[in-house]
UniProtKB/TrEMBL annotation:
<keyword id="KW-0732">Signal</keyword>
<feature type="signal peptide">
    <location>
        <begin position="1"/>
        <end position="22"/>
    </location>
</feature>
<protein>
    <recommendedName>
        <fullName>Protein-serine/threonine phosphatase</fullName>
    </recommendedName>
</protein>
<dbReference type="InterPro" id="IPR036457">
    <property type="entry name" value="PPM-type-like_dom_sf"/>
</dbReference>
Length: 184
């Protein structure tokens, strides 16, 4: 869903070495992903990827731009590229989304514990019972619900409060697009 024209974001994720489970990712624009891994002892999904939106200050400035894309983005420097290589394993869940998802939904830290427990239960019951597209729809609906209701508890609102600024739902709430994939 897009509220306003003009924004551009792309995330590329390639499983280049299926035998080793090596996932290569690259990010352009205001989007990102988290890789969640089942933790049977804690009965929740642990974050296995390095990106920590609203936890790591570096998370706000990640870009990758090829020479072909740079002019469209205003000349981003390829040395500012963000690329990540991860090892994935069966049961992992890749959640990719635009900044609107990560602005409204916590995936890291104690605030996200209930969500990560619910995702573990879905994974534990078998990913085939919860199609990735249905899960993506649920996460997008959660982000929309937070934006329309208890927005003050969102990651974005809390970050802006730390910066001494209040959140404007009209100006600050971004578009929400989500893609999920279970690793089989």
């Amino acid at each position: 869903r897009t509220a306003q024209p003009g924004g551009a974001a792309a995330l590329v994720a390639l499983l280049l070495d299926p035998l080793a489970g090596a996932l290569h990712t690259a990010v352009v624009g205001p989007c990102g992903f988290v890789l969640l891994r089942p933790n049977a002892a804690a009965r929740e999904m642990d974050v296995a990827s390095a990106w920590r939106p609203y936890v790591s200050p570096a998370a706000r400035t990640r870009h990758v731009a090829s020479p072909d894309v740079r002019p469209l983005l205003g000349g981003d420097d390829p040395s500012a590229a963000y690329e990540e290589q991860l090892l994935v394993q069966p049961g992992d869940l890749l959640v990719a989304g635009t900044h609107g998802l990560f602005d409204m939904v916590w995936f890291h830290g104690p605030t996200s514990t209930n969500l990560r427990r619910e995702l573990f239960q879905l994974q534990d019951s078998g990913p085939s019972r919860t199609p990735a597209a249905a899960l993506a729809h649920q996460l997008a609906s959660l982000a929309d619900s937070v934006a329309a209701g208890n927005i003050s508890s969102s990651p974005l609102a809390q970050q802006l409060a730390r910066e001494g600024r209040s959140l404007s739902p009209v100006q600050d709430v971004g578009d929400v697009a989500v893609v999920c994939a279970w690793v089989m």
